[in-house]
Design the sequence.
């Protein structure tokens, strides 16, 4: 089942044999981001790049010792957000975000934005939790 | 399409023969060919508007330099010889010169000097160097119009017109009579169209600031605003005009214009010019694993 | 998942609810009109397909195991099928350990919400022919193709380990050369959008990724010469009643470029676009290659109209493709740190 959620370049035949919805051979996230280096911090947006194939959120993070670090957070395609009504006005420099993700394996100050929230707890770019969306309820266990 | 042209040619007759003679006339510096050089023409109608469908191409050498330019040896002449050389051409800018603010001329010169330099190893400096055309980036507006490749206008009966460019299979959608704004900047801009009589007027905003006007390093800022006009002037020509406005870089708006020629070959179509693979060694070659480095 | 359906559904047949025209491999005739809807035409007389369309769905291409006879689900089964697929596909889940979490990458905001719903007709697969809803058995590869495929699998393994040798170890989508724009069109996780333009003698289909358009002549002209090769091939269309039929040839012969890595010399694809109501196009494709599959196969994916409320946006890709540098530069650093690619077990 896990392989259906992983995007392995070139293995298109194998993916389809698993009866999964076909996906574009994509990023190997496990290859680039380190499951053993989760990050969770709060930072101030310095720049938002609304670009493809991935949007990038540049944030300034204050470390425990008081020094500042510049991080780049990888997000998804902005086109999906545009169709939900968001624009470049929606995330501006100066806004605070909480990033929950995984750091790049090569040690760079880069992470994928597994989950992005605003300080008030609201999931970034509109909340979906608690709306009763179908995926929120696990399927019935069979008897 | 052929039958429509025939039906137009028959009544136009000798006037068409006269029009054909003007094909070889090029604009004098800074002067657009005026409508008076072409007999008055009304294009066939499609869904109530002039029909701009077709495969079109510019013949000016503006992609090398939109202002006056001598022939040049090009880059690496010791490798490229005459293959790489650039032709001479006369300015497509009305008045001849681009009205840069004084500081901008130094930036243009820097662009030109660095047009073949590439370094994408630092995300924050990704776009600092090199002509975007060199890197096979989408050329933006108006440069896409005068790249030395054909483009096709697909105009139907809906609220959208497609312009597809052969260079890097770029497309742009012109939204007709559209009120909505662009959500963010894009390489080919946000195009809103309307009809002004027989002319298609396209208002283009929200262009990525990284596009250039030509290989000479002519540039703009994120405040660029382009208004294009496509006017049929014969069965085989559109007159293209573009007014450029950017208060951060120029002292006033300025304008370019030149004819677009209908590609007349039998079964003409856009072919594929996907140039990304032509640039990968240039962009990423220095990141190859070197022999002797461990991998498997 | 498959065993659940077999045990809970029993043997009830669904033939009674079949009014869907494209099942069971019969020659497909597009319905000219239903009782309540007639296709409109452009001013020059072609059926009107213009608009922005979305093809996202969770219905799998191939029928899940154990359901080989079951083409359609009842309403209750369909609701459960959809719920289970959505649960498996949603990116908002945080369970399964850190590796799974990393691979889910983002959350649902970045995904196409329509991809969590099954097709309205409650089919168990997008494939409609063969009747078992599965890709037909594969034909054994020639030694040359086997070798080429093995080399690509090695490159994929290097990529998956974060250690690509160079940009050629990366797939065409990662290199931003082609993505969903190479036919046949299949649903994916986002940007499942297509814009159709028409003009006299042409139908142009512009997929969102990667900003290209297939401008398809429908005037009967021949294909380009056989030595001209393109990633997106060369398409020619004609109208069969209200169905646009598109044949595409002249695909490039680089290994691994063509759909499912079929043989470019013998691969054939036919696509059919039929507007069945104001909001829906049925997109159907048939592929065949005697050097790859034992028989032709066909899938149908419904497209839903989304404009003017939703639009297709520019998908520049190569222009801001920082990922390539991260992957390659990162690989050189990881090598220095002593990482190596795990040995690949070759596929049988």
Sequence:
């Amino acid at each position: 089942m896990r392989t259906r959620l992983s995007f392995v370049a070139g293995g298109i035949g194998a993916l389809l044999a698993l009866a999964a919805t076909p996906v574009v051979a994509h990023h190997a996230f496990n290859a680039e981001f380190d499951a053993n280096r989760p990050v969770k911090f709060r930072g101030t947006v310095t720049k938002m790049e609304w670009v493809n194939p991935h949007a990038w959120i540049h944030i300034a993070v204050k470390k425990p010792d008081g020094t500042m670090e510049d991080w780049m957070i990888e997000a998804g395609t902005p086109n999906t957000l545009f169709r939900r009504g968001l624009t470049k006005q929606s995330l501006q420099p100066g806004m605070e975000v909480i990033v929950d993700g995984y750091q790049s394996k090569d040690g760079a100050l880069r992470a994928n934005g597994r989950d992005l929230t605003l300080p008030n707890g609201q999931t970034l770019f509109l909340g979906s939790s608690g709306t009763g969306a179908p995926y929120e309820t696990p399927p019935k266990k069979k008897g | 399409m052929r039958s429509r042209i025939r039906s137009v040619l028959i009544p136009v007759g000798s006037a068409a023969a006269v029009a054909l003679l003007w094909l070889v006339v090029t604009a004098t510096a800074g002067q657009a060919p005026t409508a008076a050089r072409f007999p008055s023409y009304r294009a066939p109608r499609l869904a109530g508007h002039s029909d701009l469908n077709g495969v079109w191409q510019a013949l000016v050498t503006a992609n090398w330099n939109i202002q006056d330019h001598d022939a040049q040896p090009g880059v690496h002449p010791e490798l490229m010889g005459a293959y790489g050389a650039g032709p001479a051409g006369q300015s497509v800018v009305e008045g001849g010169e681009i009205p840069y603010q004084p500081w901008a001329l130094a930036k243009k010169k820097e662009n030109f000097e660095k047009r073949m330099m590439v370094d994408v190893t630092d995300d924050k400096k990704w776009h600092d160097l090199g002509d975007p055309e060199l890197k096979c980036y989408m050329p933006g507006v108006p440069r896409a119009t005068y790249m030395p490749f054909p483009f096709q206008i697909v105009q139907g009966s809906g609220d959208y017109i497609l312009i597809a460019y052969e260079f890097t299979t770029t497309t742009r959608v012109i939204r007709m009579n559209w009120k909505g704004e662009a959500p963010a900047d894009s390489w080919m801009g946000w195009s809103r169209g309307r009809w002004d009589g027989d002319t298609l007027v396209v208002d283009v905003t929200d262009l990525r600031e990284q596009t250039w006007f030509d290989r000479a390093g002519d540039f703009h800022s994120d405040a660029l605003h382009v208004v294009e006009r496509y006017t049929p002037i014969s069965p085989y020509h559109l007159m293209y005009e573009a007014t450029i406005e950017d208060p951060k870089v120029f002292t006033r708006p300025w304008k370019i214009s030149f004819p677009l020629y209908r590609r007349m070959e039998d079964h003409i179509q856009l072919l594929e010019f996907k140039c990304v693979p032509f640039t990968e060694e240039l962009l990423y070659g220095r990141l190859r694993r070197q022999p002797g480095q461990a991998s498997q | 998942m498959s065993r659940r359906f077999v045990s809970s559904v029993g043997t009830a047949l669904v033939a009674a609810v079949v009014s869907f025209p494209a099942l069971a491999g019969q020659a497909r005739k597009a319905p000219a009109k239903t009782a309540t809807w007639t296709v409109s035409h452009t001013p020059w007389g072609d059926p009107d397909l213009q608009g922005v369309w979305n093809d996202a769905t969770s219905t799998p291409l191939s029928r899940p195991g154990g359901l080989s006879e079951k083409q359609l689900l009842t309403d209750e089964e369909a609701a459960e099928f959809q719920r289970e697929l959505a649960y498996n596909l949603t990116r908002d889940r945080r369970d399964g350990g850190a590796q799974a979490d990393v691979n889910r990458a983002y959350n649902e905001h970045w995904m196409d919400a329509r991809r969590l719903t099954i097709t309205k007709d409650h089919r168990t697969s997008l494939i409609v022919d063969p009747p078992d809803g599965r890709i037909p058995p594969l034909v054994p590869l020639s030694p040359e193709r086997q070798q080429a495929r093995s080399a690509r699998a090695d490159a994929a393994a290097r990529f998956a380990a974060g250690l690509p040798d160079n940009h050629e170890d990366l797939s065409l989508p990662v290199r931003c050369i082609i993505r969903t724009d190479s036919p046949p069109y299949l649903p994916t996780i986002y940007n499942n959008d297509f814009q159709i333009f028409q003009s006299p003698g042409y139908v142009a289909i512009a997929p969102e990724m990667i900003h290209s358009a297939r401008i398809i002549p429908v005037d009967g002209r021949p294909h380009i010469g056989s030595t001209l090769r393109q990633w997106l091939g060369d398409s020619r269309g004609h109208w069969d009643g209200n169905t646009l039929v598109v044949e595409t040839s002249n695909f490039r012969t680089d290994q691994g470029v063509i759909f499912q890595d079929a043989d470019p010399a013998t691969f054939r694809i036919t696509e059919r676009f039929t507007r069945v109501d104001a909001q829906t196009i049925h997109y159907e494709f048939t592929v065949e290659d005697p050097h790859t599959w034992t028989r032709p196969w066909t899938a149908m994916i419904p497209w839903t109209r989304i404009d003017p409320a939703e639009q297709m946006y520019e998908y520049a890709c190569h222009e801001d493709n920082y990922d390539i540098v991260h992957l390659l530069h990162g690989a050189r650093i990881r090598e220095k740190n002593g990482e190596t690619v795990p040995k690949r077990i070759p596929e049988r």
In short: The helical segments of chain A are 2-5, 12-17, 29-32, 78-83. The CA atoms of residues 41 and 99 of chain A lie 5 Å apart.
